[in-house]
Design goal:
This protein is an alpha+beta fold. The chain contains four helices and 20 strands. The chain is 25% helix and 40% strand. The chain has a six-stranded antiparallel barrel with strand order 2-11-14-13-12-15. A four-stranded antiparallel β-sheet has the order 3-10-8-5, with no helix packed on it. The longest helix is centred in the N-terminal third of the chain and has 36 residues, at 90-125. Residues 370-385 have low confidence and may be disordered.
Length: 385
């Protein structure tokens, strides 16, 4: 019995000693690192926009009346000058006839006034009429002549209105919008009602994108643009920057600038009104030396870096633009050491390294204590190393 008690006490003491020794021993520090590699780095500016035809024209009516004919529908191909609709011509035809009658009446009155003036002129020569009678006859003749011109203009106006009953397409293209039906009344009292919208062609389209003011300074005409639309989530379309407009657009204190992107739509997959998510290519570096962006955010505790010391160090001078301090873990080393590197462009995941590192170097992105959980740095990296 005594032997059993001694054994239990010994085991308890040994377990307590082992626990105390492990608790008092400093935690083993491990570093999560990424390797400096070579690969493509592409810097882009993100934006959203809407696809539109390069040229689209709204077709309206300059006169009021009932729609008698509609000759096209959505997606109809039309030629310039082709009739697309017709307004009831009856009232305008009547106006033309009335104007023609007024012209004929005015011409008859003009002929009578001319004969009267000629007769008065002969009588005055023979001293059989007063000069005042001749003056009155000449004035009546001039008035009759003006009346003919007025009625002639009214006839031309009536004829123009009659011609406007036939609505034609102003351009070659495709009908992308139709908002009129037979029997509908259109009123053009204040502004012309829109009956159709005709796009010149859907083979060439453009995106009107809103670019934030912080990014617009990086844009240049001719830059490549990659974009996708919800209708084809697995396909990437391409375009080029055609114009960066100077007029600002302010919505809720956010300033953006309209950027026009030219798009080739020869396969007719893209349609007007689609929302495009754009990535404007600012710079590309093929086969560049690059590091994960997580390494740029890592900062070790003061006792975990070879550069730390017991005495406070003065604040270092500011680094040149584009220079950043990262931490490199050499093979066999227990602590990382800082290295100043000159950086280039970034794609949000990787950043180009211009100087300061070599391919294969291990850069620290976070600290792992006893193999459990990230303690610093990292910030939820998007891809493992």
């Amino acid at each position: 019995m005594k032997i059993l008690i001694i054994i239990i006490v010994a085991l308890t003491a040994a377990g307590g000693g082992w626990w105390y020794w492990n608790q008092s021993r400093p935690a083993e520090v491990k570093y999560q690192t990424g390797t400096v590699t070579r690969g493509d780095v592409t810097q882009v500016v993100s934006a959203t926009g809407q696809l539109n035809p390069v040229v689209d024209v709204t077709v309206g009516s300059q006169i009021s009346g009932n729609i008698a004919k509609v000759l096209v529908d959505f997606n109809s191909l039309v030629k310039a000058g082709e009739e697309v609709a017709e307004i009831d011509k009856a009232p305008y035809t009547a106006s033309v006839h009335q104007a023609e009658a007024n012209v004929a009446y005015a011409k008859a009155a003009l002929e009578l006034a001319k004969l009267t003036a000629d007769r008065k002129q002969e009588l005055v020569k023979e001293h059989a009429a007063a000069q005042a009678d001749l003056d009155t006859a000449v004035a009546n003749f001039n008035q009759a002549e003006a009346t003919v011109q007025i009625n002639q203009a009214n006839l031309e106006t009536a004829q123009i209105n009659l011609d406007h009953c036939t609505i034609t397409s102003p351009i070659d293209g495709i009908v992308i919008s139709s908002s009129v039906t037979v029997g509908e009344t259109v009123a053009a009292s204040f502004n012309a009602p829109v009956l159709f919208t005709v796009a010149n062609s859907l083979a060439k389209m453009q995106i009107d994108a809103s670019v934030a003011e912080g990014d617009v300074g990086q844009l240049e005409i001719g830059q490549a643009v990659n974009f996708n639309v919800d209708a084809y989530p697995t396909r990437t379309f391409h375009g080029t920057v055609a114009q960066v407009r100077n007029s600002p657009v302010t919505v809720q204190n956010v300033v953006t600038y309209d950027t026009v992107v030219s798009v080739n739509n020869s396969d007719q997959k893209l349609k007007p009104g689609m929302t495009a998510n754009l990535y404007i290519v600012i710079a590309q570096r093929p086969d560049a030396l690059r590091i994960p962006n997580a390494a740029l955010r890592f900062r070790p505790p003061e006792d975990q870096s070879d550069s730390s010391s017991a005495q406070p160090t003065p604040r270092p001078p500011p680094k040149p633009p584009g220079t950043k301090t990262i931490y490199v873990l050499d093979p066999g080393a227990t602590k990382p050491h800082p290295v100043d590197v000159k950086l280039g462009i970034s794609d949000g995941i990787y950043t180009e390294v211009i100087d300061g590192l070599h391919e294969g170097d291990a850069v620290v992105s976070s600290i792992i204590s006893n193999g459990q959980g990230s303690q610093t740095g990292g910030f939820g990296m998007r891809r493992p190393f």
